[in-house]
Amino acid sequence: DVKVTQSSRYLVKRTGEKVFLECVQDMDHENMFWYRQDPGLGLRLIYFSYDVKMKEKGDIPEGYSVSREKKERFSLILESASTNQTSMYLCASRSGEQYFGPGTRLTVT
Amino acid sequence: QKEVEQNSGPLSVPEGAIASLNCTYSDRGSQSFFWYRQYSGKSPELIMSIYSNGDKEDGRFTAQLNKASQYVSLLIRDSQPSDSATYLCAVSPSGTYKYIFGTGTRLKVLA
């Protein structure tokens, strides 16, 4: 079974803090993704990576950066958290089919 | 802009009935199609994938693909209250690693 894990299920941060969300997959997948999901807006792609150290912007990359130093690990960084980044963050990895981690519900106060 | 459209619902069906969920997509070159189930507060879970025209059955679930009409559907037979969730349709357009997700259809199965 594919396993995608995320570092936290719930996170509360203050405005202006730097936030790190980590994702690890155990299936040697080359492609990994970060999404955010908000009511009424669906899943929106923030960034994806198709190989180690390779990344591409998704639909809403502003205010975010990513890091992929190892194949199994893909990190999302909020450089300076803002209240409009309060959301559910979902990591996914794929070979053919895409599998999601459990999600991190981030609240920025 | 490549799009995937779903009726947001809620779609309400009685227990034991067939639930029919539909999805249309705009990119004619798309090759891969997926259905995810998402319970409230949880992450999406892959339940079906389909790659060629026709039907694909897995237990109580049947995915149907019609590339000429650019739609994909999911049938759930003998619906159970535990099937109550939001169902997301996803399409992988040609030439990209990305998936395009619909906004989901909320299904309510009434006991």
Please give a structural write-up:
The complex is a heterodimer of chains A (109) and B (111). Chain A has strands spanning 4-6, 10-13, 19-25, 31-38, 42-51, 54-57, 64-70, 73-78, 87-94, 98-100, 104-108. In chain A, strands 2, 4, 5, 6, 9, 10 and 11 form a seven-stranded mixed β-sheet that branches. A four-stranded antiparallel β-sheet of chain A has the order 1-3-8-7, with no helix packed on it. With 109 residues, chain A is mainly beta. In chain A, strand 9 and strand 10 (98-100) form a beta hairpin. Chain A is built from no helices and eleven strands. Chain B is globular. Chain B is mainly beta and 111 residues long. The relative contact order of chain B is 0.35. In chain B, the strands form two sheets. In chain B, strands 2, 4, 5, 9, 10 and 11 form a six-stranded mixed β-sheet that branches. Chain B is built from no helices and eleven strands. The A-B interface holds A 31, 33, 40-43, 45, 48, 50, 58, 90, 94, 96-103 and B 32, 34, 36, 42-46, 49, 88, 90, 97-99, 101-104.
Topology overview:
The complex is a heterodimer of chains A (109) and B (111).
Chain A: E1 4-6, E2 10-13, E3 19-25, E4 31-38, E5 42-51, E6 54-57, E7 64-70, E8 73-78, E9 87-94, E10 98-100, E11 104-108
Parallel strand pairs in A: 2-11
Antiparallel strand pairs in A: 1-3, 3-8, 4-5, 4-9, 5-6, 7-8, 9-10, 9-11
Chain B: E1 4-5, E2 11-14, E3 19-25, E4 32-38, E5 45-50, E6 54-58, E7 61-66, E8 71-76, E9 85-92, E10 100-101, E11 105-110
Parallel strand pairs in B: 2-11
Antiparallel strand pairs in B: 1-3, 3-8, 4-5, 4-9, 6-7, 7-8, 9-10, 9-11
- Indicate the structural class of chain A: mainly beta
What sequence of helices (H) and strands (E) makes up the elements of chain B?
Answer: EEEEEEEEEEE
> What is the count of DSSP helices of chain A, taking H or I runs of 4+ residues?
0
Cα-atom Rg of chain B, whole angstroms?
13 Å
Low-confidence stretches of chain B: none
Q: What's the helix-strand series of chain A?
A: EEEEEEEEEEE
**Number of separate helices of chain B:** 0
The tally of beta strands of chain B, per DSSP, is 11
Please state roughly what percent of the residues of chain B sit in beta strands, choosing from under 5%, 5-15%, 15-25%, 25-35%, 35-45% or over 45%.
Answer: over 45%
The secondary-structure class of chain B comes to mainly beta
Mean pLDDT of chain B: 95
The proportion of residues forming helix of chain A, as a percent range, comes to under 10%
Number of E-state strands of chain A: 11
